[in-house]
Queue: 2 jobs
Job 1
Amino acid sequence: MKKRTITIGSLLISACLCVGPLAFADMPGPDPGSLWDHITKVSPYKEWSFWPDHQGMQPGRAPHGPLHKVYVNDRALNSSRPPVQYGAIEVKENYSKAMELKAITVMYKVQGYNAKDGDWFWAKFTPDGKAKPFGKPAGCVGCHGTRAKNDFILVHEFN
Ligand code: HEC
């Protein structure tokens, strides 16, 4: 009887240890190739949502360009306060005035990636998926860091 209890107990523990990492098994590592693959093939960002307070095409500021759309995945959308959940991704399409897609800038929240600056992985992609810069670029981190309290997010206010 005692032996059985231990067995069930250890089964429960192993189940708990598994479920955590499994929840992230479908998420890419902090590298531009897997991130691009994720947002274009595994979970195409055009099927995601917008923040309720930042829907569709919006005017933007330098350095990103005059027009943009910001798509957010469920983990971002379901975060009611900063910091957003790990696995959250924001994909920003940057357009010229003539509505030509110029660049795709991405923020991806990765546990343990860069704790001192909000654990964000940053990337700027060309429309065909070439990343430069990516990682923890001082420019991205510094400018967005002015809103570190809003988890480095500039287009959405958490209430
Ligand atoms: C000089 C300031 C500045 C720099 C540098 C900058 N951004 Fe931004 N970013 C903004 C502003 C302002 C917005 C709000 C939307 C807009 O005006 O285009 C924004 C919005 C975004 C968003 C939409 C999500 C959000 O609300 O924050 C993403 C994603 C993003 N930037 C990624 C990047 C990446 C990646 C880099 C570096 C390659 C970068 N940004 C560099 C100012 C900056």
Job 2
Amino acid sequence: MKLFKTLAAVSLILLAVPAFAAEGQRDAKDISYSFEGPFGHFDKGQLQRGYKVYKEVCSTCHSMHLLSFRNLADQGGPGFSEAQVKALAATFTVKDGPGDDGEMLDRPGLPSDRFPSPFANEQAARNANGGALPPDLSLITKARAGWTGTFNQLINGIGGPDYVYSVLTGYEEAPAEIAKEAPPGKHYNPYFANGPWIGMPPPLSDGQVTFDDGAPDKVDDMARDVSAFLAWTAEPKMEERKSMGFATVIYLAVLAVLLYFVKQKIWAKVEH
Ligand code: HEC
């Protein structure tokens, strides 16, 4: 009975989760990524393409303050070499100082710098975006969830990358009955968590980024690649965590078998 009650409580909680989603927000599109599931791995080529989309498109508005350029060479990540990281860090401009004259100065990025914000401060960022603030993207795939069903989420995670993909590809013509209410400068996007009106203009268009490996560059492809990249930025140690988890489960299974035989042996002479 107690077990039954616990199960009932747990399933009620699980069923209640979608109710937290914003009213009228559309469920995220369920994308299948290489890193889902207990044995999933990041696809290095995809992370490198996603980085390129971030650099050429998103970084003109969004920072990633929790990530340093040198992380791009870390184990389990996009697999850039240290020389590549040095070169790509230098393509960003970083504020440093103040210098001897008391003024802040601009210099090219170094591998130890974090991904900077393109704006001097929050007001400047809002001012350039019609009042909306482009959030830092380091943790966006952990901060937002895409609802893809209880079982699916248990196996594949909370669906943060699916949410990002859905926002990037989810711009539509607003339904006639609310089109008149459109705030100036906002776009209709039913997947946006604080929607349906979003202050980000559709950032991607077909063919915008040319990939070095010749991979397809439709909006759909770029959205997949950049959302996978943002899954990595939010959890750069995911591969390590999964292989550690797997090793732990094997270890515990072997230990359980050994303990069983030890117990049989110790109690063998005790009469029932
Ligand atoms: C022209 C500037 C601009 C560009 C370029 C841009 N964004 Fe945005 N983005 C914004 C603004 C502004 C917001 C906040 C919108 C709001 O609050 O209404 C935003 C919001 C978002 C959100 C929703 C965050 C949330 O709160 O749920 C995501 C995800 C996002 N951007 C990802 C991206 C990605 C990925 C790219 C690159 C492909 C990109 N953006 C390019 C300006 C931009």
